[in-house]
Amino acid sequence: MATNRIAFQGEPGAYSHEACRKARPDMEALPCRTFEDVIDAVRNHQADLAMLPVENSTYGRVADIHHLLPESGLHIIAEAFVRVHISLLAVPGTQLSDIREAMSHTVLLGQCRGFMRDHGIHGITGADTAGSAKIVAERNQPALAALASPLAGEIYGLDRLADEIEDRQNNTTRFLLMSRQPDHERRAEKMLTSFVFRVRNIPAALYKAMGGFATNGVNMTKLESYMVDGVFTATQFYADIEGHPDDPEVRRALDELGYFTSTLNILGTYPADPLRETQTRNG
Description:
Helix content is 30%, strand content 35%. By secondary structure, the protein is α/β, with parallel strands linked by helices. Strand 13 (220-228) and strand 14 (231-242) form a beta hairpin.
């Protein structure tokens, strides 16, 4: 039964919430405490889609997310790129000169060092960005501000004293939208396929497994390794490639990959976000 809800991790106003509003503005956003709760909400039919951050252009891979994707039982149906614009939020009537401290997630504090230094503002670590905005609204102290999204300011009734104060103007987070059912029927000018695999225990297995993508002209945009169950000898790889599994060249490359792997799990096939090209050019 459809719920028309999309689940995300964090408080209302989090950047994941912003991603939901941008990618699926017609759906109700459902806040969840953890990434596991987001996945469970979709599996238990409390939501139709999950919005999960996977990587940031400044800070790299989101911790633990690659472990959760293959075990979730969900399928990637889309990606969404969201520019991380940071605002300084304070209780109504506050002036910038009143601010002495700003609360946010430690990652966001690290992205606004220049602004904080120039205005003599001390950073305070909070659990997350939107949660910090909520605390600032509850405490109602003019000297305390939050670093969070403009959406968080809108939700918690805070004034935006300064916008786009991040040190890096191209800071972008990539999100994946996941559902209970795969969608392999769609076609777009650029399709992406994501999968995880483990190579067989034979010499040069990874080198040989990757050879099929090179010889068939399939562009691999991401390849990352991570340990499985905390064991150094058990390594799993996550990969993104351009193309659809039904494309002849992709099918041949995946067939060759399968020969050198012990497990291969396709997580999803989906259109590339139009902002992907912009991010590539700016990177």
